[in-house]
Amino acid sequence: MARHLEIAHDLMEEIDEGRYAPGTALPTEDQLMSTYGTSRNTVRRALRELSSRGRIDTRQGSGSTVREYRPTVHLASSAKGEPDDERYTRYVERIKHEQGVEPTQRLRVIVEAATGRLARLMELDPSHTAGFVVIRRCDRYIGPRLWQRQLSYYPDFIAKGESKGAALMQPEDIPRGTRELLADLGYPQTKSWDVVGAKMPSLKDSALFGIGPGTPLLVHDRMAYSGNTPIRFTKTLMPADRHQLLYFEGDMTPEALRKATDVNIYDH
Amino acid sequence: MARHLEIAHDLMEEIDEGRYAPGTALPTEDQLMSTYGTSRNTVRRALRELSSRGRIDTRQGSGSTVREYRPTVHLASSAKGEPDDERYTRYVERIKHEQGVEPTQRLRVIVEAATGRLARLMELDPSHTAGFVVIRRCDRYIGPRLWQRQLSYYPDFIAKGESKGAALMQPEDIPRGTRELLADLGYPQTKSWDVVGAKMPSLKDSALFGIGPGTPLLVHDRMAYSGNTPIRFTKTLMPADRHQLLYFEGDMTPEALRKATDVNIYDH
DNA sequence: TCATGCGATTCATTCCTACAAGTCCCACCA
DNA sequence: TGGTGGGACTTGTAGGAATGAATCGCATGA
């Protein structure tokens, strides 16, 4: 095996065995050089191997420390009596309680012509004037850090159809939640599907979320329908080291849900 | 900005603009060296930046090509009239149809004492003889490639309780599906929760799944209950570049579900 | 026509060096 | 006592070089 992979393997094992606990400093590059009798390049490559897998954080001038994972679980199924759109808010409130940091959000509204995949998804005809979407972008921060970015797409006949729909065009929070607003406008949400996946962040994403190397993004797409009319498509981006999604089926007891909330996919 | 990040940024932009289409070769290291008037190390660093984000594949002797993503969507909610455990199988069948490759699977059964988190999760008392779990590990392959790994944990009082339960201890496929088997044993599944997240693979995981750098793993944990008794915990690991999970609420039409199946989180 | 083998191209690994820049501690001074 | 500056330590960036290994195309020969 290549020398740098040997070193990486060694270090990874020692981390897994708890020799280097989370938060603990790894040996410095100089120390590793003499330990393994190899050049700095090789040592650095080994460390990069750990870094790109999200196992360590390296700070210039300071050293490398073992990363710790405490992702928070985020309810994605509709709980009884809880409006759909309150979920993220409730979640943010929980974070606030857990971390003692004030959550903030920044909203931005854009109107765009829907083309290609998006038009097909929303069942809009781009040749009509109706082939537009209102995009509400909501960036949620915990402290100075971008916590999640949510992009919601609404067909513009909803926003333009009634005077109340104009609220969708305002870059302001909708206190009742958009689900209720849509219901008031004659589009009660009757069904929805979610697609969940993960990808690595682009350079921009990394800077945007302030996430270290080796941190994937959890991507959550949701399409909501009223009858058979698509009324909203939502794409949510979240750093996977701080977010997990929770779904359930059947009548869950509070204890079971609480237990699910404590699950950490990084375990085992 | 650092020189290698400039180059990486440039290349990423050109990829996004379609200048280098998926599957297309990027310029060679030599070409990039003269284009940017920089050393090979710097060029390689830029390329590694793309590689660790899963944007390119680099092959020795050949060059770097733009990676393409066609993840398949995998139904995670219970569809009506479809037993829970058939889902993955059905999914594999679909892959087989799409890709024309025979899926295979390898099963392994282990019995282990449940400790710590797992015992708490399964509500088992480690001091009792009942504090054991039967672990069924199922590796599913598409061709020679590991497609997903599934670890199912059953409390051993289920496997030992009745003679039929012994089927759980056999490293063989259970044709009816384990959900039906559990129902026969007196533990019909009444509710469940799922936690979905993503993490970077360890060195072992990378080798196991044969995934290139910059490919996260999608992790899917599911706890199933019969009444308030935990009857199964399942952890599924899947490379995120080939898997997405689909959930839904309400009565979905086949067309809407088909549309969801076509969603690709790498779009937009 | 087809298989073989050679050579050019290309990336992989590893070494070396130099300097920049961030961190941290401690001695020194006000 | 408390603040400041300097120096040691540590990682970041960049360049140069040599060798190994995989790939691919092309010419050669059966």
Helix percentage of chain A: 25-40%
Largest sheet of chain A: 6 strands, antiparallel
Q: Please indicate the percent range of residues of chain A in DSSP E strands (runs of 2 or more).
A: 25-35%
Shape of chain A: elongated
Low-confidence stretches of chain A: none
Please summarize what this structure is.
Chain A is built from 9 helices and 10 strands. Chain A has 268 residues and is an alpha+beta fold. The first copy, chain A, has a 6-stranded antiparallel β-sheet with strand order 4-5-6-9-8-7. Chain A has a two-stranded antiparallel ribbon with strand order 1-2. The first copy, chain A, has a two-stranded parallel sheet with strand order 3-10.
Q: In words, what does this structure look like?
A:
The structure is a homodimer of 268-residue chains. Chain A is built from nine helices and ten strands. Chain A has helices spanning 3-16, 29-36, 40-51, 86-99, 116-122, 156-161, 178-184, 203-209, 254-261, and strands at residues 56-59, 63-66, 72-75, 103-113, 132-142, 145-155, 191-199, 217-226, 229-239, 243-249. In chain A, a hairpin with a 2-residue loop joins β8 and β9. Chain A is elongated. Chain A starts with a helix and ends in a 7-residue tail after the last helix. The relative contact order of chain A is 0.13. At the A-B interface, α1, α5, β7, β8 and β10 of A face α1, α5, β7, β8 and β10 of B.
